[in-house]
Amino acid sequence: MQLTDDIRSSSSDPELVASRREHIARCATHVFVKKGYDRTNVDEIADACGMSKGNLYNYVGSKEDILYLVIDRGLTNLTKTIEDLCDRLSNVAPADALREFIKTLYRGVGEDADFTLFTYQETKNLSPTARQRILDAASRDVAVCEELLRRGVESGEFKINNPMLLAHNIITLGHMWAVRRWFLGKRCTLEEYIREQTESILKTILVDERTTIES
Amino acid sequence: MQLTDDIRSSSSDPELVASRREHIARCATHVFVKKGYDRTNVDEIADACGMSKGNLYNYVGSKEDILYLVIDRGLTNLTKTIEDLCDRLSNVAPADALREFIKTLYRGVGEDADFTLFTYQETKNLSPTARQRILDAASRDVAVCEELLRRGVESGEFKINNPMLLAHNIITLGHMWAVRRWFLGKRCTLEEYIREQTESILKTILVDERTTIES
Question: Which domains does chain B have, with CATH numbers?
Fold first, then answer.
């Protein structure tokens, strides 16, 4: 069950509600990571959404509701990205699958950098249920990456000492694009970041290094 | 100038003030990362320090003073660690210097995990001066590591495509021991984490891979 199932709305058009809530969640995530959840008030969120406070209250009941919208939206996007990747990559050779995995995941972080940053800054302030959902999603991302690495080890394409730790590195280095954008953003583009991290990772694990040439 | 230079104290014994403030800063960092700065009150900090509120106010004037103590203590420790490393490693061969750099820095993160976590969670809430000091220290750590990597490239021991990015990876993967301890802490020890990250990094950059055997 989503955290937002119980949020009341005065509109009876489910598509309109969904599209407005998507907009509210995206704008609110930006305000939360800039000011912090505790220091943000509903007026500021309405401003960031370009909506009147009265109109905002047609779609949410409180600041806490908005927090749940932010979390549901972020986690739903993440889950969709990971599930699509699993489907698409199940029959792809490990090195190419890993390239595609890193590219898709890191671009996802780039597109929704605010949500990644939000999870690093605010997870501790959430209710136990919301917090656990974020930690579960973060663990799942590592597990999916680890599984992909293990497949490459089994096929003889990769040699990896500790696939869990490497998977954790891959996931968290992706997050860093959002979390340390004040540093990285001045020094390289996201596509350069993706290319260099991918090559550096493949270099460590490919049994036959010539495979990197195709990348 | 330190942010804490102006904090008033009712004690005239500078050593006592310094030792009490060290204690207060360490305990307060822990409470701040657990509850968030905004949600913490001075009573809770006094509790965590095992001091009465009245006694606490002998050494600080406000919650904001405590925040500055936390930042000064964390940054002073970090700077000391990095400066000691620079002195110690200036004449050490690059691969050994890199091993020692990672080990010392990651152990430092382990010893003061709360402060690392604090910088990831709370930097955005600080005054511009305090925020800039934290970002400057974070940039300096990357620059020192990058310099060490470049020295290895110049001596022919390392082959590195992008020393800045690798230095950033080394520093942030160290931070992850603190920031993602909910994940890593269940899966490996800090010493295992240090060993495996070091070997994986050296494997990517050593021109002559046999050098890894001594580690």
Answer: 70-214 (1.10.357.10)
